[in-house]
């Protein structure tokens, strides 16, 4: 591209306008070493770092290579060594229609750019800013040597950087020079104030950097498909590091007639049919430095025994790290989502729900789309607290969920703790509609079951880990009848070092007709190592103790539960258990006292045991045994009497059939009234 005919500014006026247009920090003015200019009379040249000015802590030097009216420019690195905090920034300079020139920052030089050749089109110059910090006094000065050359018009260089937009899509011109190469661009609208929309159709081995405030370059994340400007211009840099292939990309742009990031804060009335809601511009436009609040109201009136609930389904969410969409009611924040999510379901039980979408300066994601529906949920199916409930570092949560509930949503947060935490969960879910999710930082665990049988799960989190979120959800699809069987779950946690003491009461009383509970330390959490706990259970006089062990899991052979019939634990034990066991029979003592001794070794522990105990009368037990023998005797006696009666009846009753053997060997059957024929 040739130099526009309007470019007729003298070298000196161009220089002063160019320098004035560049961002200069006031902190460097005291050590400004001036501007060194290389006009068109220099066909080539060498640029070196100036020596540090004596007595100067920080130093700023400028090197200007003026545009050529008929030639392009190239800039390469011969050598470069940068000390801590020193920088070398390179800009392209443009001037059109006798207006003040402006700069496009496109690279911060370092040793990784040794093989690059930076080029500029006809009518475009280079300006290089060298910033030397006071660290050079301690660590030595930075050094660099750059070479520039003016190029013939037939040499391939970066395209002219200024692009004019229209309301129709136009294409960013191709870069016809092999890599490694880096070229800056600025897109401006045809009407001042309009914003620019950039669509990244294909990026084959080409990287895009956003030029933010002419101060820093930020690489666009992979996977981004579009972006838009926050002002009426958009600056970016394209880079390809291939050594032979030409940069390959397909990027189109246009100006927007209306601001796509206008917040629609009109109240939304929600009924039984889902309402579709998206972030402004979704999915192509992602609004930066944006904040938008919306209110949602029910189309129903409340009734006794039910709660009006918003069911929110976030089908897709894509935000930057610090951007988020927040859900609240009554001034209480209920949930906040950021990052990338799909098909997340949130329930908000209240008359009014508010959402707020907040973003920072980034403009490279997609936003969100979600549906919101209003339903009536029975009170028994509602979470007992509003929003996410913050717990202590030691505690438990649990719920009993009726079988007719179609939607349940309840969340708890366990804060970060300075000690490791151990968790245990017990649940009896019967369908895949029930699930609880445990999230700690980036680690997500989901627990569910369809058997309906009790399940246990154990896990731990490290010290100073991020807060842990526990979320229980029941989601029954529309048109599906929920299982009428109720389900429940409970989760318990505590610091790793706790639960290492034996039960405070070492002597317990068993009561007739009442079952009491006894658990290993910290159950259902894992017990500690090196434990030795003794518990005596005493029944009333003329009674004995009866045990029912409902759950048992210890380290096989090493961690044991010993049962002693009486108070003497130095003699032979009655029973010894270890490992994973299921008990189908009750255990009875012969004395009034049953002693339990639980021992663990120095490593490996499981969740221990749970048992219930009661008392039985000795006489009741004997009567139960005697009654059993008496019943057997009665049965045998009855059988003997029946057999005797059968014999008597057989002998006294006349025969109804007799057999006669004929001479011919045949059998004839005769009744009592028949006569034997001779």
TrEMBL record:
PROSITE patterns: CUB. SUPFAM superfamilies: Spermadhesin, CUB domain. Keywords: Disulfide bond, Membrane, Signal, Transmembrane, Transmembrane helix. Residues 263-375, 502-616 form the CUB domain. It comes from the Eukaryota. The chain crosses the membrane at residues 632-653. InterPro entries: CUB_dom (IPR000859), Sperma_CUB_dom_sf (IPR035914). Residues 1-27 form the signal peptide. Pfam families: CUB. CDD domains: CUB (cd00041). Gene3D superfamilies: Spermadhesin, CUB domain. This is CUB domain-containing protein. It comes from Trichostrongylus colubriformis.
